[in-house]
Design brief:
This protein is mostly helical. Helices cover about 50% and strands about 0% of the residues. A two-stranded antiparallel ribbon has the order 1-2. Helix 1 crosses helix 2.
């Protein structure tokens, strides 16, 4: 597959990068907030309400994709519970005194492949998700994905490669673009939280079509990722990092 080059900004280490969480944040965030505040009155209020928080990435591609698979079709709270149990099955220890959701990894593809499906089911994963996790691990262990090249690829080229992995559809690939590569202009129209946020913040709770959601997000470009992130905060003030 040919991949075109991308000029997406690289993530930068935040001031607290030495903490146990090892999270990174986007360099473009402040610029994006200024842009959104000027273009969109709803965004102006959301940014004022949640302005101190930022999109964060753990910086590990396999961990991000694994967490995305775990989180498919279940609540954020349930996904975190399953993730914690999965780490326990793998023998990974958390950071003493860390808050719920803090980084406890990264998860290793080769380590995951040493566990049987039955062991992984003990974490609360469905049989289907166990298959997905093991297929993902094989892709990474056998270097069937071009991890080192993704920073230079366009968004759609990365999506095309990721959806060839079992269990990874467009939504999961877009969560990866947002939470790992921190691409600035991703609009995940398959995300129920985004659609709900647009419905509540722009349409007084009325149902919203994908076309209407896309129209609303036109004002956010080229920072649709940031607009999406603030709508997630309108529904749940606690940021999630995959």
């Amino acid at each position: 597959m040919g991949a075109s080059k991308s000029s997406a900004p690289k993530p930068v280490l935040p001031a607290n990068a030495g903490l146990a969480a090892n999270l990174v944040t986007p360099a473009y965030w402040d610029e994006a907030c200024k842009h959104l505040s000027k273009r969109d009155r709803v965004m102006r209020k959301l940014i004022a309400d949640h302005g101190s928080a930022r999109l964060e990435s753990r910086g590990d591609a396999f961990t991000t994709l694994a967490r995305s698979i775990v989180g498919q079709q279940i609540s954020v709270k349930s996904a975190q519970s399953v993730w914690e149990r999965l780490l326990a099955v793998l023998g990974l220890q958390g950071v003493e005194g860390s808050s719920p959701g803090s980084d406890r990894g990264p998860l290793s593809a080769t380590e995951l492949l040493t566990r049987t499906p039955e062991q992984l089911r003990q974490a609360g994963l469905s049989a289907r998700k166990v298959e997905y996790m093991l297929d993902l691990a094989r892709h990474f262990a056998e270097e069937r994905v071009h991890v080192a090249q993704w920073q230079a690829w366009e968004d759609e080229a990365i999506v095309d490669e990721l959806v060839d992995i079992r269990g990874i559809g467009r939504w999961t690939a877009e969560m990866f673009l947002i939470f790992h590569l921190m691409r600035p202009n991703v609009l995940p129209l398959d995300d129920l939280g985004l659609i709900k946020g647009i419905s509540q913040s722009y349409f007084s709770g009325e149902p919203v079509s994908r076309a209407e959601a896309r129209d609303v997000a036109e004002a956010w470009s080229p920072f649709r990722t940031v607009g999406t992130w603030y709508l997630w905060r309108s529904l749940d003030p606690l940021p999630v990092a995959y």
